[in-house]
Amino acid sequence: MSTKYLAAYALASLSKPAPTQADVEAICKAVNIEIEADTLAFVMESVAGRDVATLINEGAAKMTSMASASSGAPAGAAAPAAGAAAAPAAAAKKEEKIEEEGDDDMGFGLFD
Questions:
Q1: What is the distance between the alpha carbons of residues 60 and 63, in angstroms, rounded to a whole number?
Q2: I need a labelling partner for 96 at 20 to 30 A (CA). Which of 28, 80, 102, 107 fits?
Q3: What 8-state DSSP symbol labels residue 38?
Q4: 6 by DSSP, 3-state: which?
Q5: What is the SS3 assignment for 10?
Q6: Which helix (H) or strand (E) holds 39?
Q7: If we measure between CA atoms, which residue out of 84, 95, 78, 57 comes closest to residue 107?
Q8: What does DSSP assign to residue 2?
């Protein structure tokens, strides 16, 4: 699918709940995008009957499944565990760094 047509469809959906192919074409022409009729027809068939919120949710679900497949672990399980472990370590490093700098430059270094 061509993202330029999806973007035009999303933009058109701001003023219409179900944009038509003519609406998408008008937006593309307004910004000098060359229209490939076959590709645009395929995109319009693919999004038919679904609103933009549904399309975004479906796309997000696909992105999540791709991320979990590439890491070998469920995306939902790995991210919170990593974030929880990193937060205390980062806070300890930050406190340590502040203590080392002193009050000479009041925390504002020339090259920080």
A1: 5
A2: 80
A3: H
A4: helix
A5: helix
A6: helix 37-47
A7: 95
A8: -
Count, residues in the chain: 112
Domain ranges of the chain: 2-67
- Which amino acid, one-letter code, is at 86? A
Rounded Cα distance between 102 and 57, Å, is 49
Give the pair of three-digit tokens for residue 5: 């047509």
The 10s digit of each residue's pLDDT in 55-89 is: 888 888 888 888 777 666 554 555 555 455 555 55
Neighbours of 62 (CB within 10 A): 10
Residue 3 in 3-state DSSP? helix
Please name the fold of domain 2-67. Arc Repressor Mutant, subunit A (1.10.10)
What is residue 18's DSSP assignment?
S
In this prediction, residue 51 carries a pLDDT of 86
Contact yes or no for 13/53 (Cβ under 8 A): no
Tokens of 99: 């203590």
CA distance 68 to 37: 35
